[in-house]
Amino acid sequence: MFSRISRADEFESAAMPYLSDLFRAAVRVIGNRSEAEDLVQEAYLQAWKSFDRFEPGTNCRAWLYKILFNVIQHHRRRWYNNRAKIESDEVLMETLGYEAPVRQDLSDEDVLAAFDKIPAQYREVVLLADVQEFTYKEVAETLAIPVGTVMSRLSRGRSLLRQELAGLAANYGIKEGGRSA
Amino acid sequence: MKIVEFESGQCRRVRSFLDSYLSNELMAETNLEVLKHLEGCANCARALDDRARIKEQLKSVVLNLQAPDSLRKRIRSDIRRTQKSKFSLTPTWMLAAAAAVLIAVMLGLFFRAGTSINPPKTRPLSLVATVAPGDVSKQILKVGFDDHVYCAIDHGMADKHFTPEQMSKSLGPQYEGLVALVKEKLPKDFDVAVGHRCHYQNREFIHLIMRRQTEVVSLILTQKNGESFDAAQATELLKGTGIGVHEASWYSLHVAGFETTNHLAFLVSSEGASDSVELATSLLPAVGDFLKRVTV
After folding, report:
1. Which of A87, A180, B161, B204 is most buried, judged by most C-beta within 10 A?
2. For residue B88, what pLDDT band results from cuts at 50, 70 and 90?
């Protein structure tokens, strides 16, 4: 009885510090706060139920992310099966070429809006690698995809984000030009 | 996407390396090639600047969001509820456990009755370092070793993973820059898992825990408390850098330490770990420079 109580405390002290971290990731991947809250809650419940299988000394944060992305995958399969637009990884190379400049004074809202427009499969890799600073290997394990795919999606995702932001810059330019004329 | 071809092949080649360049992933020769090109190409330099800026801004805006308290409460109540439902299934087992606890408490009281009532002692360290009397260097190195054992091993901090905000909050403005500095100097496969302030035996420590798979390394800083190493006992480790390093080993842990005017710094790692010497060589001089800038 008492060991079970301390197990719950142990779980909380190991897992709860990452709550905001996981919540942010879920919001960005799902794009909706209330759904993200439900998915994070589900991920924590699953983590708690399988806490006996968690090996102390291994990386708790990576373990939680893996569970969260599992829950997200499951959720997507259930609700978005036919709607999710998954872009083929093979169209990668065509984006290399001219790069339009990006405005220096983009607002945080602009950056978030541009990021949220990128297809989910690229967004989640950029999120894990560039924002949460996971290694390629950890990203690969979290999303259950090969390391090579992580690297190509990361490059594509970054490039798509730049294009979105450069597009914004162009729009601003037109507006400003209109005003000053 | 429209492709407008007006840049040189060299520009295109360099652009394809820019992200890896930013993440410090390039081989030395490619790195040099990129650097040289950037010096003479304003367009690519601007592209690099764009990439760095976007990455930083994206990171800061995403990390800004906090989980709502209501979510925290919901999760806590899930945990407690599933826990309760487990108990309710086994009333007999619970009774037996309660009886066992009661007996244990009574036995404990019985055996304690003959001894005076002392305040609870702090748990002894799991690894106790012994030092020969008069060995000043080892006496000081033991300060770092003890904090590593107390905090990283016995209190399980080596298993934790702090977010950057947690680290900077705990370290405070004076020391938060240390994390980036250490990250820069560490081999790529190392991760700074924890950065915090901890206390052991009335002393405050700035403690960074670095991990690589099962390997755990601590960087521990503390203000001097009148101690000073015996310069004659310094080893050859960082010869030529002007830093007198002292070393000791206990229980297959290696401790390297040095002092500045106001601080003591220790690096505790597994003895014989492939690159404990390289780690000390690359980290300690940078830490020394950092400490010189810290005002007491």
Report:
1. B161
2. very low
Q: Which residues of A touch B158 (CB under 8 A)?
A: 57
CB contact under 8 A, A48 and B79: yes
Same domain, A15 and A48: yes
Q: Could you tell me if B63 lies within 8 Å of chain A, comparing CB atoms?
A: yes
What number of C-beta contacts closer than 8 Å exist between A and B?
145
- Judged by CB atoms closer than 8 Å, whether chains meet at B98 and A1 is answered as yes
Q: Which of A155, A154, A169, A161 is nearest to A100 (CA)?
A: A169
| The three-state (H, E, C) secondary structure of chain B, written as one string | CCCCCCCCHHHHHHHHHHHHHHCCCCCHHHHHHHHHHHHHCHHHHHHHHHHHHHHHHHHHHHHCCCCCHHHHHHHHHHHHHHHHHHHHCCHHHHHHHHHHHHHHHHHHHHHHCCCCCCCCCCCCCCCCCCCCCCCHHHHHHHHHHHHHHHHHHHCCHHHCCCCHHHHHHHHHHHHCHHHHHHHHHCCCCCEEEEEEEEEECCEEEEEEEEEECCEEEEEEEEECCCCCCCHHHCECCCCCCCCCEEEEEECCEEEEEEECCCEEEEEEEECCCCCHHHHHHHHHHHHHHHHHHCCC
Confidence of residue A92 (pLDDT cuts 50, 70, 90): very low
B1 lies within 8 A of chain A by CB: yes
Last residue of a domain, one of A57, A84, A111: A84
Is A77 inside any structural domain?
yes
Give the residue on B whose Cα is nearest the Cα of A48.
Answer: B79
Examine the fold and report which residue of A84, A118, A153 is the final residue of a domain before the chain moves on: A84
Amino acid letter, residue A31: G
Residue in chain A closest to B183 (alpha carbons) equals A133
Which of B263, B228, B234, B262 minimizes the C-alpha distance to B248? B234
Contact between B159 and A4 using a beta-carbon 8 Å cutoff: no
pLDDT of B1-44, one tens digit each? 444 445 678 898 999 899 999 988 889 999 999 999 999 999 99
The domains located in chain B, with CATH, are 65-112 (no CATH), 129-292 (3.30.200.100)
